[in-house]
Amino acid sequence: MTLQQLAYFLAVARTRHFTRAAEESHVAQPSLSKQVQALERELGAELFTRARGNVALTPAGEALLPIALRILSDVDTAHLEVAELVGLRSGRVRVGAPPSLCGSLFADVLKRYHDAYPGIRLLVTESGSRDLERDVTAGALDLALVIVSPSMSLSAVPLLSEDLVVASAAPLGKERVRLSDLRDEPMVMFREGYDLRETTVAACHEAGFAPRFSVEGGEMDAVLRFVEAGLGIALVPSMVLATRPLLHGTPLVAPGIKRTIALAHRTDVAPTGAARAFRSVLSGYLRGAEMPSGVRLLEH
């Protein structure tokens, strides 16, 4: 098995077409097909079904896909790590964060890092916490700010604790509310893969009711806009309301709902020099920053 064979396999898996995969890989189509066939002989299983006009992964191909992605990502990381031995003058760091942080403190951290290491390319992914965990595990991200969960299998350093509040277009008429007070309120719900979706549904069930969704499937900005339009309420981090004057944020009755934000990386691969430098810049920024309402810095 060679790295080139794995790269050709991934190209076919991505395009679902041998000719397009060959063009993307800048190789003749017969050569690519022979290398994929050699990989199949090595593994003792077919990786693709090859019906006319329809190339699909077999169960063996599905099993190989995440492993091949991780192997090639690790090879790329190894090249970068060796290059960084001469200093952080070139390279890249791939970081992810949930939308609630990308729209607030994360931009300032990226600016500080870019000023300190202008030769390092910053590749940023904005997504839900569970999606980010998956990308870090697969080797698609070096680091990610994620919401700590019992099922998380990454190495993580807790950084912040934040309160969730009820966002609404009009005041709810109370200084603080219980979740049970929201039983009959329509809710705007995040798409699958958002930690806030799981948190909201679990909290409502614990309060004795199933949430009633008026609209669901949005990203953070869309959810806040839907709430502004009066389509329902949403449970959101308090920090996202700082730039939303049309929304009201009502705290929950103590103890409320808190979540912990951590910086995570894979347990089986040490972060690169560029990633370690990013972690240092982030920690330094947090120690000196004024935390938004409802957000507390954790000792680390």
Could you list some keywords that capture this structure?
300 residues; two-stranded antiparallel sheet; alpha/beta; 10 helices; globular
Describe this structure as you would to a colleague.
- The protein is 41% helix and 24% strand.
- Strands 3, 4, 5, 6, 9, 10, 11 and 12 form an eight-stranded mixed beta sheet that branches. The chain has a two-stranded antiparallel sheet with strand order 1-2.
- The longest helix is centred in the N-terminal third of the chain and has 25 residues, at 59-83.
- The protein has helices at residues 3-15, 18-25, 29-43, 59-83, 99-102, 105-116, 129-137, 195-206, 220-228, 273-288, and strands at 48-51, 54-57, 91-97, 120-126, 143-147, 155-168, 186-190, 212-218, 234-237, 248-251, 258-265, 295-297.
- The two termini are 43 Å apart.
- The protein has ten helices and twelve strands.
- The chain is of the alpha/beta class and 300 residues long.
- The model has no long low-confidence stretch (mean pLDDT 88).
- It is globular, with a radius of gyration of 23 Å.
Quick summary:
The protein is an alpha/beta fold and 300 residues long. It is built from ten helices and twelve strands.
The helix count comes to: 10
Q: Terminal Cα separation, in Å?
A: 43 Å
Query: Could you tell me the mean pLDDT?
Result: 88
- Count of DSSP E strands? 12
**Largest beta-sheet characterization:** 8 strands, mixed
Shape: globular
**Order of H and E elements:** HHHEEHEHHEHEEEHEHEEEHE
Helix content: 40-55%
What Rg is obtained from the alpha carbons, in whole angstroms? 23 Å
Secondary-structure-based class equals: alpha/beta
> Could you tell me the strand content as a percent range?
15-25%
Low-pLDDT ranges: none
